[in-house]
Amino acid sequence: MEHIHIARLTFTVGLWVATSGVVAQHSPAAEWLAAQVNEYSSKLYVYNDYGDSRNAFTQRGVMMYGNIAEPQMNEAYPEPFSGITSIRLDVPLGFDCWSGYYFGNGVTTANGTPVFDWGDNRAGMDLRGATKLVFRARAEAGQTAKVNFFIGGNGSGKPYNDSGRKETGYVTLTSDWQKYEINLSGVNLSYISGGFGWVTNHTNNPGKDHIVFLLDEIYYEFASPRPEAVFPASYKAVPLGWDGYFINSFAYSYDLAMTVLALAYAGKDEQACKVADGLLFALSHDRKFTPSQRGIRNGYAAGHPASFSGWTSASGKSPYAKLPGFFDIDSQTWWEDYYSDSYSTGNNAWGVLAFLEVWRRAGKTEYLQAACTLADYIHSLKDEANGGFKGGWEGFDDNQQKTGYISTEHCIDIYSAFMQLAGELEKNATPQGGKNAEFYRQDAAHARAFVMRMYDPAQGLFYTGTKPDGSTINRDVYPLDVNTWGLLTFYNDPAVDVPKILSTIESRFAVNGMYDFDDSKDGVWWEGSLQKIIAEKVTGNTAKYLSQLAIANAAAEADGSITAADRDGVTTGIWLEGVGADGKPQGNEWKYNKRIHTGATAWLALAQLGVNPLDPRRSETGLAGPTVTPARSFVQDGRLYITGLAQRTPVKVYSITGMEILRSESSDTFSFRLPAHGAYIVSAGTENWKIIY
Predict the structure, then answer these.
(1) Average pLDDT for runs of 10 along the chain of length 693
(2) Cβ atoms within 10 Å, residue 289
(3) DSSP-derived pairing of the beta strands 210-222 and 589-592
(4) pTM to 2 decimal places
(5) Which of 56, 308, 476, 661 suits 496 as a labelling partner, its CA being 20 to 30 A distant?
(6) Is 17 exposed, middle or buried (0-12, 13-18, 19+ CB in 10 A)?
(7) What phi, psi does 100 have (nearest 5°)?
């Protein structure tokens, strides 16, 4: 192969030629993340799956007339049109009788229990912009059923009656799933508390003593995406009863922060800001604590983060950020998650990084203010005696305890976040009540000092941190990510032996060409593997970065997403409820399954874009990468690669005769499969090359 750099190139451009199947490198993973946000924004679900926190109108109001039994409704029926569950209705019939159900948001009672509201309280929603309500329905196999479906009309004669109503009229359901739509053109949707409903009677179902029918995929469709904040779910839903089914609607704050970063770096600012706005809401609308007391929790309910109108928290707050959980249909009990209700210091540091990135792109002062607010909360966890910062607060609302352990990973996050924040404050006015840049640099130095105390140069690794006493080094588990993050943050720190750490990662964590969470080597953990791939690029190992990225891209799903692990049950050695006073693990071990994961997909997007979100000099250089390196091009296995480009650099590839065969905007790493052996002219911004392959 001959590779010649041309300082200045002049030639005649011929006719544009489209080459089938040729595309410039982009981030399919970022496209998938954006699609998740867009889908949440363009639909408002009444029912998607059982327990899905995206569902609005979650309370049920039964309507009956005559001497018949109440209809029986199973909202976790395992025969869906799509997803994991559907709603099954068994409806008794009787002469001159009728019955039905309203689906509404309802209100919470004095003890916190939600109940349906018939128009006595303000519990409705403004649905203007919705063009239709869509749902799927069918009768039980071998049967037919006639049912009338409708929206609105709740609260007639009450103080808060619905602003409009529209119905299908009686339709005949067969045993095949059918799609039905209620056109909402001309309907006043400014206040709707009866989001969906149905009614039926004996007259329309003659000769039957009952009917059985199923419902699924009930949603309002909007003409354009709504501007509301959005929390995408962390994991793809799995059927009820499967391992991890109870977190189907969990949106972990770390995954949300990573999603913000990946979308922002990919230039998808609208979607990045919608997720960031959700974190803003969560920060200022916790159901119990103030931002200075806690910051951001570890998890929230997926979907729109705000509680429904008419819902009030036990501490009297309304609206408040919804927390994830699961309603057990058998015990009729609402269960919350110990980890999600808690506050991890590291997750708050990632929140700082996410807010800073959307601040840079959108210039919204609230984002910079939120970054300072979170940083000030983290400052309250500073451990002057042992160094570093405490791990956060653990437990449910009424019994939370400050942790004793100090995490190396958290302190790495803090160092990068506080250095970036200090850099932004040196260029911009400090938000009201905020600290100055030097204050955060001092905290960053405090975090770094702890990280270096946890660095073992002989082994070439970072220890995970301390045990609950805050001083004894924890040698029980050796996580991969504390080392990959250490590389991404301290890639040019003279105190760190980068080649030694890379070598240690290979010897201790490598499995099947990628890397495990810990040194058990029982499976590939994609999130950490992708961090390692970015570390190869950051430390100048471009060839390995590209070859391992190719492996990750091959492992991704067709839609651009990637699973958390390459198999189910990949262990971590970390226990969800920490370690008790007796030194024994509490709760369940955190494991990763082969299940599509938003956080891993965000890291895949960052790897595809070739950016380092933990670079502490991000604010100073304005660059995602660690250094300003000149663009270069090379050919490997028939693909043309260009590295070192700025985001959205225009790239053109011409045949030697001047015919254009590709035109694209590139991220900082561009890839294109050359159509055949021969000579090509490549133009990338101000750079030009002649490639002979």
Answers:
(1) 29 26 62 95 95 95 96 96 97 96 93 91 95 98 97 96 98 98 97 98 96 98 91 96 93 98 96 97 97 97 95 92 88 88 98 97 94 97 96 95 97 98 90 86 97 97 96 94 98 95 97 95 97 97 95 96 97 72 69 96 97 93 43 71 68 76 65 78 74 75
(2) 16
(3) unpaired
(4) 0.85
(5) 476
(6) exposed
(7) -175, 180
Contact 562, 29 (CB under 8 A): yes
Helix residue ranges, H only, 392-517: 408-427, 437-453, 480-489, 498-509
Domain range 48-222, CATH architecture: Sandwich (2.60)
For the chain, the domains span 2-26+629-692, 48-222
- Residue 78: CB atoms within 10 A of its CB come to 13
Query: Residue 235 in contact with residue 244, Cβ under 8 Å?
Result: yes
- Amino acid identity, residue 600? A
Q: Rounded CA gap, 271 and 539, in Å? A: 31
Which DSSP symbol is given to 579? B
Name which of 561, 577, 571, 562 is nearest 592 in CA terms: 571
pLDDT of res. 566: 97
Structure tokens at 44: 């408002």
| Dist. CA 279–CA 371, nearest whole Å | 11
Residue 299 main-chain phi, psi, to 5 deg: -160, 155
Angle of CA points 74, 242, 105, to nearest 5°: 40
Closest CA to 606 of 23, 28, 22: 28
User: Contact 24/664 with Cβ under 8 angstroms?
Assistant: yes
Q: Please provide residue 470's backbone torsions phi and psi, each rounded to the nearest 5 degrees.
A: 80, -5
Closest CA to 426 of 435, 446, 378: 435
Helix pair angle (526-538, 498-509), 10° resolution: 150
C-alpha torsion sign, points 546, 548, 551, 553? negative
What gap in Å lies between CA 518 and CA 501, rounded to an integer? Answer: 15
**Burial bucket for residue 514 (CB in 10 Å: 0-12, 13-18, 19+):** buried
H/E stretch holding 589: strand 589-592
Q: Where are the beta strands (DSSP E) in 25-139?
A: 43-47, 59-65, 72-77, 86-92, 98-104, 107-108, 114-115, 130-139
Helix (H, G, I), strand (E, B) or coil at 599: helix
Closest CA to 182 of 98, 40, 65, 194: 194
DSSP 612: -
CA–CA dist 251, 300 (Å, integer): 5
Q: What's the order of all strands across the beta sheet hosting 679-684?
A: 2-6, 687-692, 679-684, 649-655, 660-666
What would the DSSP string read from start to end of 244-258?
A: TGGGTTEEEHHHHHH
Q: Which fold has domain 2-26+629-692?
A: Immunoglobulin-like (2.60.40)
Cα(607)–Cα(258) distance, integer angstroms: 12
**Number of helical (H) and strand (E) elements in the chain, helices listed first:** 14, 34
pLDDT value at residue 580: 61
Q: What does the DSSP 8-state code read for residue 398?
A: G
- Rounded Cα gap, residues 294 and 308, in angstroms: 23
